[in-house]
Amino acid sequence: MKTQPIDQFACTLPPEKRQSVYNGTKATHEKRTKLLAGDFADPDRLRQLAGEVKQHVIENLDTLLPQVEERLTAGGAQVHWAADAAAARRHVLAILQRRGATRLVKAKTMVSEEIELAPFLEAHGIECLETDLGEFIVQIDHDHPSHIVRPIIHKNRREIATSFEKNGLGAYNDAPEVITRRAREFMRKKYLAADAGMTGANFVVAESGRLVVVTNEGNSRFSLAAPKCHIALVGIEKLLPRDRDLALFLNLLARSATAQQLTVYTEFIRGPRAAGQPDGPEEMHVIFVDNGRTDVLAGECREILRCIRCGACMNVCPVYRQVSGHAYRSVYPGPVGAVLSPLLAGEDFLEKADLPKASSLCGACNEVCPVNIPIPDLLLRLRDKGKRAGAASPGLPPMGPWALLASQPVVWKAALIGGRLLDYIPPGLIPVPAMHAWAASRTLPKWRGGVFRKWLRQREKRKTETGERKA
Ligand code: SF4
Questions:
Q1: Nearest CA to ligand 1 atom 8
Q2: Among candidates 314, 309, 317, which has minimal Cα distance to 252?
Q3: What averages of pLDDT result for each successive group of 10 residues across the chain (471 residues)?
């Protein structure tokens, strides 16, 4: 991934990409808002309740994780624990090698992307095929997802048709139904030939040891239909205490993620195929992955572990809408990524310390979050942590001159009058050198200094005149 600071990346983004991201996020956000308000008398109360349940989970992982291990084992699954990405990759490889597996079909799992599983398996001679359509397109394009729910939000169908043609999936045709039919024909053969299927889990219920996986394409179901081995990669925070909590979370997840009342396919998996059952994997492994999560839990931003990866905060974020997911240089983009990515970076925290600054702190992410994560507060805590850790602040406007301007009315008025000159000065020649980096990564609007004062004066005049008339 590119390592450009987020604002500089935004400047290089082609306008059509920016437009695709803006249109896609805005439409989903508007549908989500309408649906929630139409279906529930008090959606905010539901968000608060879900937040409380997830907060309970992350504060009780020490008892819930052993409980879920016991239930899963009783159901016939094998449970593995991975402290970091390398351990998780090793578990997957060992399971596949023991079975002599060389072909893996993979439904979307964010954890597998987080631990960079696909290139690792490919390097060990194991084909690892993404079966979510968006992820598949990203894979054949050697690209990265730019949204956690809609990985190709930055692409249009013409680009997809070109990729298909380049990768031998038929002559150029950008009709959506042709693209999906071709992908389906290609994947069905792969499903039938696969030795193992991999999924994530949206939720794992501690009470019953039930894995819950939701998809809109049915690809997780296909990934488990023919292969004899099922591997689930799950972050340790994905637990829910009780089965009945699913009623709340499935309702909130579908509405928040894709503005649907329920995701099209919701699967409940309790273990491998039991004796007498006609089909399903004969072996099931659940790998619980920590990879920095317990460090997050021990820190001051632990609320981010409530996240159920719905993507609603991206859809509403004015920064994400302008910069797209690739700007965040991480598997997790948008407001959730601006918090989670630096935290999961561990010793490399400073490399991601600019991400929490990519926010206007408008609070919209918190308002839509189905588990009520106080993202703006967490961003502020991380900004503070970054400053204490000595994070560089390229492009930060000089606050000293600003304080002088803002506290001296005469100087302020003079600056407003002289401000028009800024329209004619190239960023590199701005007379305050400390502002060069700041101005270089921004497109400044035309100077409109004084408009507010003029408006205020007219308003006061009108009020006085009206008052005189009334008197
Ligand atoms: S932080 Fe909240 S809104 Fe954002 S992806 Fe996670 S659950 Fe969804």
A1: 310
A2: 309
A3: 71 86 95 96 97 98 98 97 98 98 95 96 97 96 94 93 96 96 96 97 97 96 94 98 98 97 95 90 97 97 98 97 92 97 93 92 97 98 93 68 83 81 72 66 73 87 81 63
Q: Which among 53, 255, 307, 372 is the best mutation to test ligand 1's pocket, defined by most ligand atoms within 8 Å of the CB?
A: 307
Please list, in sequence order, all residues whose beta carbon lies within 8 angstroms of the beta carbon of residue 33, skipping any fewer than 6 positions away.
Answer: 368
Structural domains of the chain sorted by starting position, each given as residue range(s) with its CATH number in brackets: 40-291 (3.40.50.10420), 399-470 (no CATH)
**3-state secondary structure at position 286:** strand
Q: How far is the C-alpha of 129 from the C-alpha of 122, rounded, in Å?
A: 10
Please give the torsion angle defined by the CA atoms of residues 44, 49, 50 and 54, in that order, rounded to the nearest 10 degrees.
140
CA of 193 to the centre of ligand 1 (A): 36
The residue assigned the tokens 């991400």 is 355
- What is the per-residue pLDDT for 170? 94
CA of 20 to the centre of ligand 1 (A): 21
Site to probe by mutation for ligand 1, drawn from 46, 48, 308 as the one with most ligand atoms within 8 Å of Cβ, is 308
* Token duo for residue 80: 């593995």
pTM of the model: 0.87
Query: Phi, psi at residue 243, to the nearest 5°?
Result: -60, -35
